[in-house]
Design brief:
This protein is mainly α. The chain is built from 13 helices and no strands.
Length: 305
């Protein structure tokens, strides 16, 4: 009897989940703000990828011309954003650095999601003392300033882009773990989970097959919010000088150079404006997409409609 229930419940739950996912996707695609955010982000990604490819070729991102330092924007292919203190094209450096910022944000988000989902799902499903110990560890890590943890990791393992996105991802998973744990606690007592347990399914299979598919909505929504958070953290660290190291650049390091170039005597506004503008547009587009996903997967919104 139990085996039969386990065999029937899983497909029914899977079909219901697919139906809800399709409804959420339809709501997501109907949002005009989502299309605006998606278009902006797509243009930014294409520009950054092209800028990175061009910048890496013959190290165009670091080509210096001291005779052309601090030139204002002009109608030339690589001079649209002007030049910096070493005569390097800000257009090339902005999009080349944008690719690095986006890569750090994306990879840090992937690491954060993997750690947070694994930790939260395990704690919520097993419960009891294991849950208490695991969540107390999360509470302790919450009490530590993330900047200190990132600095310690970069000092211990050296300054590189790989260490940077691992460090940011390693301190960004705590909220994800709490969100997933709460969802698992509310799902693990459902009938289809009880049927799977009666059918002899192991803990890992129950979490992977029966619980995680029903958590895709919150996971996807929160992942889209982690990416701009990671980009901001990387920009802040680079602004402080402990992120991406010269001669490579990111939006944060370019913003720091722009602030250094500003003075009340000679206005070099373009050095700070364009990196900060690209950063703001990217974060804004990601937030629009994240808001659209949140509204699409919000069950309260679904009932109101």
């Amino acid at each position: 009897m139990s085996e039969s229930a386990g065999t029937i419940s899983a497909p029914v739950g899977a079909r219901a989940h697919r139906s809800l996912a399709r409804q959420a996707m339809r709501r997501f695609l109907r949002s005009r703000l989502v299309w605006v955010g998606t278009t902006l982000l797509a243009l930014m990604v294409v520009g950054c990828v092209a800028g990175f490819i061009y910048g890496q070729a013959d190290r165009h991102y670091d080509q210096q011309d001291l005779d052309a330092k601090y030139e204002a924007p002009r109608a030339e292919a690589t001079g649209l954003f002007g030049t910096d203190d070493l005569g390097r094209s800000l257009l090339v450096r902005t999009f080349h650095g944008g690719a690095i910022s986006l890569a750090v944000g994306l990879m840090a988000a992937v690491i954060s999601v993997v750690i947070g989902v694994s930790w939260g799902a395990t704690a919520g499903y097993l419960g009891g003392k294991i849950d208490a110990v695991m969540m107390r560890i999360v509470d302790v890590l919450y009490g530590l300033p993330y900047l200190l943890l990132v600095i310690l990791l970069t000092v211990a393992f050296g300054r590189s882009i790989v260490v940077l996105f691992v460090a940011i991802g390693a301190v960004s998973w705590l909220t994800m773990a709490r969100v997933v744990r709460g969802q698992v606690l509310s799902l693990k007592n459902n009938d289809y989970v009880s049927a799977a347990v009666s059918a002899g399914a192991g803990h890992a299979r129950i979490i992977r097959v029966h619980l995680l598919p029903n958590l895709l909505g919150p996971i996807i929504v929160y992942a889209t919010l982690i990416i701009p958070q990671a980009i901001l953290q990387e920009s802040f660290l680079s602004f402080l000088g402990i992120g991406v190291q010269a001669p490579m650049a990111s939006w944060g390091s370019l913003a720091r150079e722009g602030i250094d170039a500003l003075n009340p005597v000679v206005s070099r506004w373009w050095v700070a404006l364009f990196p900060c503008l690209m950063l703001a547009l990217t974060l804004g587009s990601l937030n629009l997409i994240g808001d659209g996903l949140r509204d699409a997967f919000d069950p309260q919104l679904k009932r109101r409609k």
